[in-house]
Amino acid sequence: MSFKLPNFLRWSSLDTLRQKMGAPLTDNFVLVPVYSEISIVEQLNTGGVEIDLDEISVHDDGTLLYRGYRGLLHIRDITSIAGEMRMPRYHLAYCQTLEKMKKNSRFDRYVVAQTNTGEFKVNLVDRDITSRNVRLNVCQNCLDRIHWKGFSIFGMSRSERQNRVDNFSLPEFFREYPRDLIGMKPKYTSGTAPLNDYSQNWAKLSKDIRQQRGHRCESCEESFTKDESRFLHVHHRNGLKNDNRSVNLAVLCIACHAKQPEHGHIKAHPDYKLFMARNKRQKD
Ligand SMILES: [Zn+2]
Ligand SMILES: [Zn+2]
Ligand SMILES: [Zn+2]
């Protein structure tokens, strides 16, 4: 089977949209059949896709990515407790609530969706199960996580926070945080999407990047000798380990790397302990 691909660079409606979004046309803009991507978006729009934790990555800005698209997470199955249905909040960022859920391994109960209306498809589980579109409120921890319009859990009264939740607008959110990172990351079909794993040339690439950037941590700005390169890591900002565009890579010392979301496990690495001991020695 073969497909004739349209040339997206000459497809004026798409290009106009791209310019409106202010999305750059990157060097490695990859031409792919767009229909598989559309089907993901359609799925997301029409009721959510059940996900594993591993399929979600966290953008630098704290928002949630599913296959490169910004998504909203919510619990799909709502059980009644003593005849009462308590509606869940939906999440747009990797917030405290999700962190807690993840620690308790309860992430599998979530689905990812994209909607502009604030209506989500849920299953109401009572005596029987009814599938219904319901309006959900945005999670306050999420608004706090991305500091949406200065939102702050601790800095605002309960009524002010509720007021912000009531007036929260998804279209506005998606204008600021576009759903589709088109032109900002290479596109893949679901069939050709690489596993989220390091590419084969990673060792060399990582070495070259550290060299190019002067063996220096981009966060704390500490410099390292070549002998100490084990303490200097190359981090994927969007969590996709095969997205090796320069803009997605950050050179970080092991301590700054361990501070990234979902990177706590680095602290268990022997190099981390070595590094901490070395810093202590240098201070003494
Ligand atoms: Zn949240
Ligand atoms: Zn550092
Ligand atoms: Zn990393």
Question: Can you describe what's shown?
Answer:
With 284 residues, the chain is α+β, with helices and mostly antiparallel strands. It folds into two domains: 16-176, no CATH class; 202-283, no CATH class. Helix content is 29%, strand content 16%. The protein is built from nine helices and eleven strands. A three-stranded antiparallel β-sheet has the order 1-7-5. Strands 2-3-4 form a three-stranded antiparallel β-sheet, with no helix packed on it. A hairpin with a 3-residue loop joins strand 8 and strand 9. The longest helix has 14 residues, at 270-283. Mean pLDDT is 78; it is low at 26-38 and 183-190. It binds zinc ion (3 copies). One zinc ion binds next to strand 11 and helix 8.
What is the secondary structure topology, with strand pairs?
Elements: H1 12-21, H2 35-45, E1 49-50, E2 56-58, E3 64-66, E4 69-70, E5 72-75, E6 77-79, H3 96-103, E7 110-113, E8 119-125, E9 129-135, H4 140-145, H5 158-166, H6 170-176, H7 202-212, E10 232-236, E11 249-253, H8 254-258, H9 270-283
Parallel strand pairs: 6-8
Antiparallel strand pairs: 1-7, 2-3, 3-4, 5-7, 8-9, 10-11
The protein binds zinc ion (3 copies).
Quick gist of this model?
The protein has 284 residues and is of the alpha+beta class.
